[in-house]
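Changelog-adjacent note: as of this version, every example in the card shows the full chain rather than a window. The one below runs 136 residues end to end.
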Amino acid sequence: APALMPAAVMGASTQAMAQDDDPIKVGILHSLSGTMAISETVLKDTVEMLIEQQNDAGGLLGRQLEAVVVDPASNWPLFAERARELLAQEEVDVIFGNWTSVSRKAVLPVVEELNGLLFYPVQYEGEESSENVFYT
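Full-length structure tokens:
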């Protein structure tokens, strides 16, 4: 997992390279409330820990990483809204998130429309492929 963070952010949008002084924004899209919080909160904590470790090692490409955390509250339609918020308003360079197939499917059209990059941390059922999703 530690090697995944630099690879993910380096593969993020060219926006990450646009401003040398700006941090590289990493969106975290995991439920912190609702029924899925018990499974997803630890994933949010893990991504934040990896960001901290990378920053302690000097950052990435000479820049610090910045976590931008949102709570889709275990609500599948809210996942899409929060993904749009991360990409369009917060202008994150990459998103780590989703724990269920239904949440990933809710987010997929938004990520594709806004040409974002999503890292999905769970095995999945297949029969879906997108240039905007890294299926781990």
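Structural remarks: The first helix runs from residue 4 to 10.
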